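Lab notebook: predicted structure, single chain.

Context: the supervisor wants predicted structures on file for every construct in the current expression panel, including those that have not yet been purified. This is the next one on the list. No modifications to the sequence; it matches the entry in the shared construct table.
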Amino acid sequence: MSEEAKERANKLDKLKHTQVKILPKEFTSNSSTNIYGEKVSIIMWGTQPFGIMIKSKEIAEA
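Prediction complete. Output recorded below exactly as produced.
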């Protein structure tokens, strides 16, 4: 993980209602998952980013 990414994670983790978890390097991925309320977003960062939004309380709480 780059220093820039670590700094961003530390800033985000200080926000109200926000929890940041960082996976070990062997689980590196070009995607991010965000959960807010009953919505879950999964974003794949690449040359052409792609995202999926799921609105489900059951999935958000899993």
